[in-house]
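Model it.
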Amino acid sequence: MTPSPHTLPRPTILAIETSCDETAAAILTGDGKIAASVLASQHDVHGRFGGVVPELAARRHIETVETIVAETLQRASLTWPDIHAIAVTRGPGLAGALLVGVSVGKALAYARHIPLIEVNHLDGHIASAWMDQPDFPTPCIALVVSGGHTHLYLVRSDGALQLLGKTLDDAAGEAFDKAAKILGLGYPGGPAIDRLARSGRATAVKFPRPYMGPGSLDFSFSGLKTALLYHWRDHGTPERPDAVADVAASYQEAIVDVLVEKAFRAVRRHHACALAVVGGVSANSRLRAQLSVRAAGAGIRLAVPPLALCTDNAAMIAVAGQRAYLEGRRAGWDLEATADLPLPVAAGVPPSSVRAAGARST
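Modeled.
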């Protein structure tokens, strides 16, 4: 019989996140506070390639994960006897990168004789919406927008998820990265385009808005990426910084327009009073600005995590892991990393549990 969440003490969770190119660990205490959150970037490894190289990502995780875990304990002023469970990202993500985190998490849990908790990476992102706003209401719409995912969910009052729309090809974050490579802006592409676009004209180039039909909630950015490629091939003038800035601003505006319109289309269709936008692309300044304007005009409550919690991090994995622990969910020692791990409808975000575990950085 699954224990009731109300009968279990709130554990102090150490979480490990290695789904892509960030090696991260965090500790969430029983009173819902993030005692420490440490992240090591791999931008120096992948920058010269213009994108993440899976084999190199896995190798760097191997080199750094033990140090990151030790530093997290040190920053939290805690020792191993203070940790009640290990939460680890099982997927989705890069297979080799995930394998490192899962293996380390299993080894630590086994050695310390404490429970092992598996977390879906997307579940972690959705949970991050409640970390800064523990009273964020449901039902709500959740837009998960990152390098590998652009998904719209309805988060029901009971916490269950309903998938409303998803990317049919390139995710928004991937579209940003590929555009930055075309324009010679380096990696990671999203922040580079965001910075450059601030000095450009968003109306300079008329890029298409791929809405995929008037009623669709799916996404497709491959055509937009191709339009950029052809435009830059025919009109690009790298020697003029203002021209590059105009193209970046126009391209960014096209992506932001689609994300905002689809998110609020879902809000209207499902009569939701709240919208959460999470994932790495939610750090984009233009997207945050447009969401705020639309939400204020429509009287919709908006949740966008603080910048430090938008990109991949272990704090969100800790919050989702603590909720899983309270629901009595445990992983076995045969746990395997799963690169294409789906997010089941039943693996939603129970509002009461997330609010109780809502974390604020200290």
